């Protein structure tokens, strides 16, 4: 049996990304931190880990893979993520009425915030 243990995000500024993703996801880093690598785990104990790997890599758009983050209050989460340094991404092909907002972290790694309010199909 396989399961997702960790999603790895490559980054240039490990400290900045560590601050962003721990606050964004309410995750905590495994200590002690490794040189150039941080494993973040959910404080609640539920969900996959997110690892940050300080290995700069070429940014490709559109990305081949991205995170879909489910939110019970999408508007509030988008505002909160923007206050942490995330940016909204305009995509002219986004369907009208789509249940997601495309965003990127402080280094341009894209993710979506999906409206998963009770009663909505996420």
Automatic annotation (TrEMBL):
In this chain the VOC domain maps to 3-116
PROSITE patterns according to UniProt: VOC (PS51819)
CDD domains recorded: VOC (cd06587)
Full protein name:
VOC domain-containing protein
Look up and give the organism this protein is from: Agrococcus baldri
Q: Highest lineage ranks of the organism?
A: Bacteria, Bacillati, Actinomycetota, Actinomycetes, Micrococcales
């Amino acid at each position: 049996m396989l399961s997702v243990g960790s999603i790895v995000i490559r980054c240039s500024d490990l400290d900045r990304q560590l601050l962003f993703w721990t606050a964004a996801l309410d995750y905590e880093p495994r200590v002690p931190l490794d040189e150039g690598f941080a494993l973040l785990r959910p404080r609640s104990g539920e969900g996959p880990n997110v690892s940050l790997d300080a290995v700069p890599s070429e940014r490709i758009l559109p990305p081949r893979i991205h995170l879909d983050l489910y939110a019970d209050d999408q508007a509030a989460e988008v505002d909160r993520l923007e206050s942490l340094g995330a940016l909204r991404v305009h995509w002219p092909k986004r369907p009208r009425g789509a249940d997601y907002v495309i965003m990127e972290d402080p280094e341009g790694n894209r993710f979506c915030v999906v409206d998963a309010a009770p009663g909505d199909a996420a």
